[in-house]
Amino acid sequence: MSESTSTATTSAASSAEDNARKVQQYKDNLISRAETLITKEFPERIVRLNALLDTPQFSERSFTDVYQELNIPVPEPILVEGEEGSERKRPRLNSNTPSPAAAVDGNGTKVHALPTGRVECNKPIGELVCIVKPIIRALVEDSNLLKMWISFMIPKIEDGNNFGVSIQEDTLAEIQSVETEAAAFFDQISRYFVSRAKVVSKVAKYPHIDDYRRAVAELDEKEFLSLWLVLSEIRNRYCSLHDIVIKNMEKLKKPRSSNADSLY
């Protein structure tokens, strides 16, 4: 074996050992971080979420507090001239005459620009979203950390004495369920804005129809209730995860008893 080949082999072995050491260090740090999270930080977050749910923003606000007037005026009706006693006909839209704020036919108004400017997002709902989104993100990250923590503690597959392993697997499934549900909360928020934008565009196109305006208000009320429910569910999920992990901490960390061999 040449000297260069020997050097390359030694270098590769050293690199592999270094990578293995770094991976093990990552696992040890993650396990320590997860144990601190579940024993110290989870109770703190539960208390903080309870306090947030008791604030006037969530506990005392009524549906009328999240109502916001749309910046879309109702245009004056178009007077149709016709002979007395004859049937009224729908006026035809002259393509050379811009009419951004008047309903002129059954297809609605051609909206090129709103006469009073843009229609802003619902401000009270936006404030609540800014509060809730970081909390959702924290739950997703915490669930992911706990999921890896339990995965690292699952022992190698063996016959018998697997009751502790089944506890680990059940807890892991519960954590994965929480992670999936928390990620879906983000989708719920984005769908609200998309749905509201579609209804607002209907108001701009059919400004005389009050049902579309009412639909916007109903969406805002629904989202306010949904944000309160999301915050409550996050609090409940933290409670359930803390409870199940604390109750089964011994089996989660040591799924197989050390004196199993003495039974035979």
From TrEMBL:
Residues 119-261 form the Proteasome activator PA28 C-terminal domain. Keywords: Proteasome. One of its GO terms (molecular function) is endopeptidase activator activity. Residues 1-20, 78-108 are annotated as: Disordered. Residues 1-17 have a biased composition (Low complexity). InterPro entries: PA28_C, PA28_C_sf, PA28_N_sf, Proteasome_activ_PA28, Proteasome_activ_PA28_N, Proteasome_activ_sf. Residues 18-77 form the Proteasome activator PA28 N-terminal domain. It comes from the Eukaryota. Belongs to the PA28 family. This is Proteasome activator PA28 C-terminal domain-containing protein. It comes from Anopheles quadriannulatus (Mosquito).
